[in-house]
UniProtKB/TrEMBL annotation:
Keywords: Calcium, Cell membrane, Coiled coil, Ion transport, Magnesium, Membrane, Transmembrane, Transmembrane helix, Transport
Occurrences of domain EF-hand (ranges): 127-162, 164-199
Catalytic activity of the protein: Mg(2+)(in) = Mg(2+)(out)
Protein name in UniProt: Aste57867_12623 protein
Matches recorded under Pfam families: CorA
GO MF terms, alphabetically ordered: calcium ion binding; cobalt ion binding; cobalt ion transmembrane transporter activity; magnesium ion binding; magnesium ion transmembrane transporter activity
Coiled-coil residue spans: 512-539
Chain ranges passing through the membrane: 544-567, 579-599
The species this protein was found in: Aphanomyces stellatus
Record family assignment: Belongs to the CorA metal ion transporter (MIT) (TC 1.A.35) family.
Length: 606
């Protein structure tokens, strides 16, 4: 038993291949009863050469090997007191600022309009390469690729960063100057600022603001090895670490954040140099979640909506309804083959049972969620972010379970033999899989609605149809943009348009198109039910009018006779007979009987 971490190497796979055993990894199970979530991985049927790591450990970054986390922690950061006047006084005159130039794209042949340094200082967690490059050229005379130690010091002062009195500046700058050329290059400047900002977010003033309702999981894998940490407990060590050299891809999954407490997301933004626009889209999730795919200089950003069943119990009920409907359709096909008579209503399915079934399907899904995916420029690290904590809320989107437990952790996983693009494809596929039962259940729902419409007639509640229409529209608003995203954007990208990635992405596209087709069919079925309900109500109204007409026709002779004998003539012989009243009723009954016989036997109107 290993807690939080496990390791599989090539020896394990060879042993499994020799024994023809593909059940080497049992699915990790997570305790969802509390906040102290820890995945327990049991490795069975494996004899590995090396011992699995029992503790959580991370590889330190090699960008600035001499500049440690402790050094970054000791730096003083006075970001709030940086003013535009102070910046201009330390950097130089406006003329000098205009003289120094540099292109965001590394093109020094054309001068670009300089931004005020105060603009470049905001926001705090924006450490994208383009922004830091422009900031670096504010401190670099004539746009050179390196600055002296003094110029580097002025640049740090402009950023509000200063070396504490207990630390010698030359000792500090020598740790940043990795190549020892007595100057600070752009890469060294970027890594230095990145580490200092990251360290600032781990100071006690910030760490006290973090809530425990978040889970960070990390997995490093290659075709021959896989190492997972779930959850990450040593956040600081991880944020200052780098992907191990043996791993081809690292997947980082953050479950749980909110706009008021986005500290971990800001830490990840500094670590992976996330663009502020992408980070804003991730934090500010609107009610109308839309698909988005954007290329930035340091990473690629993908946002997709996730529509899921309301609860886990609702998911099981939906699956049961789908299975029952499939069995019913199979029985109908078998009855057609045997030429048996088909029942209009399945045996044992009463009106009360239909109403109970439809009431259970009254509310199907949650509000749409947003899944954000970031892929680094090197295409070797993937960051996925979801708002809900899947260890606290059992109905949350269990993305880690869907991709890692049911795919990546298996010994025969195809995912580990491919790059980051295939992982992104798997994440998108997991979101698409959540939509499938929501679309399929409408076939069973409309069948039950059809039975209920015919059984109840005019007593049928038409609000059921209106509610089903709203649900169909809500699902279509998710499916249609996903189809456009996969077909028109992802398949046009080089990383998704080659090899197995292209084939599997086309499979995802086909599934989405099938769902779009099913939704159109469901809308047609709904329109047919609405039309059938209208016809039933119109027929009922016609029956009422017909009955009223027959009754009125029966009383018409009586009305005529009453009018005749109610006239005020003195000489009406029948009025003075002893049995005139009974004769009147006898004649009326005879006339009505003849009228009914005429309508029934001759005209066949009743």
């Amino acid at each position: 038993m290993y807690n939080r971490a496990f390791w599989i190497d090539l020896t394990c796979l060879k042993n499994m291949a020799n024994s023809n055993d593909y059940t080497s990894l049992k699915t990790p199970t997570a305790s969802r009863s509390g906040l102290t979530d820890a995945f327990t991985i049991e490795v069975s049927h494996i004899v590995a050469d090396g011992a699995a790591p029992a503790v959580e450990s991370w590889d330190a970054k090699a960008a600035l090997p001499k500049f440690t986390v402790e050094d970054a922690m000791n730096m003083e950061w006075d970001y709030a007191n940086v003013t535009k006047k102070d910046v201009q006084a330390r950097v130089g005159s406006v003329k000098e600022l205009r003289a120094s130039y540099g292109s965001e794209f590394g093109d020094h042949h054309e001068k670009e309009t300089k931004e005020a340094l105060g603009v470049l200082l905001d926001p705090f967690y924006d450490v994208t390469t383009g922004r830091l490059r422009r900031m670096f050229h504010h401190f670099s005379p004539q746009g050179k690729d390196a600055v002296s130690y003094d110029e580097f010091q002025h640049g740090l002062h402009a950023l509000g960063i200063s070396v504490p009195a207990t630390v010698n500046f030359k000792d500090f700058v020598r740790k940043v100057d990795t190549n020892g050329d007595n100057s600070i290059g752009l890469d060294e400047f970027i890594h230095c600022v990145q580490m200092i900002k990251q360290a600032h977010l781990f100071k006690p003033d910030n760490t006290n603001l973090v809530t425990e309702e978040h889970v960070l999981r990390v997995v490093d894998y290659s075709p021959t090895s896989i190492h997972a940490v779930a959850p990450v407990t040593k956040l600081q060590s991880f944020m200052f670490s780098s992907k191990p050299t043996w791993a081809s891809v690292r997947w980082v999954h953050l479950a749980g954040f909110n706009k008021q407490d986005d500290l971990n997301l800001r830490r990840l933004a500094i670590k992976y140099q996330l663009h502020p626009l992408a980070l804003d889209d991730c934090l500010n999730q609107s009610d109308k979640i839309r698909c988005k795919y954007e290329h930035y200089e340091d990473h690629t950003f993908l946002a997709i909506p996730v529509l899921r069943p309301l609860t886990a119990a609702k998911r099981r009920h939906i699956d049961a309804c789908i299975d029952d409907h499939r069995q019913t359709m199979f029985n109908k096909r078998q009855a057609l083959v045997r030429e048996d008579s088909l029942q209009t209503l399945p045996a044992g399915l009463t009106e009360a049972a239909l109403e109970a079934k439809l009431d259970d399907l009254k509310i199907l899904m949650r509000e749409p969620e947003q899944l954000c995916i970031f892929v680094t420029k090197a295409n070797d690290e993937v960051l996925s972010v979801q708002a809900d904590v899947d260890t606290v809320d059992a109905s949350a989107f269990a993305l880690w379970d869907a991709v890692f437990d049911h795919n990546m952790a298996k010994s025969y996983s195809k995912l580990r033999t491919h790059g980051a693009s295939f992982l992104v494809l798997s994440l998108v596929g997991a979101a698409v899989d959540e939509l499938v039962p929501l679309v399929e259940v409408f076939e069973a729902k409309f069948e039950a609605l059809g039975y209920l419409v015919r059984l109840q007639g005019i007593k049928f509640d038409v609000k059921r149809l209106a509610r089903a229409k709203k649900q169909l529209v809500a699902i279509e608003k998710i499916v249609r943009p996903l189809v456009d995203l996969v077909a028109d954007q992802l398949l046009d990208q080089d990383e998704f348009n080659k090899g197995d990635v292209k084939s599997y992405l086309r499979d995802v596209k086909d599934r989405l198109k099938m769902m779009a087709t099913d939704l159109r069919d469901h809308q047609q079925s709904l329109a047919n039910l609405v039309e059938e309900d209208k016809q039933i109500r119109a027929q009922s109204q016609a029956d009422v009018l017909y009955t009223v007409s027959v009754v009125a026709a029966c009383f018409l002779p009586g009305t005529f006779m009453t009018g005749v004998y109610g006239m005020n003539f003195r000489n009406i012989p029948e009025l003075h007979t002893d049995y005139g009243y009974f004769v009147w009723w006898g004649v009326l009954v005879f006339v009505v009987a003849c009228l009914l016989a005429y309508l029934k036997l001759y005209k066949h109107w009743i």
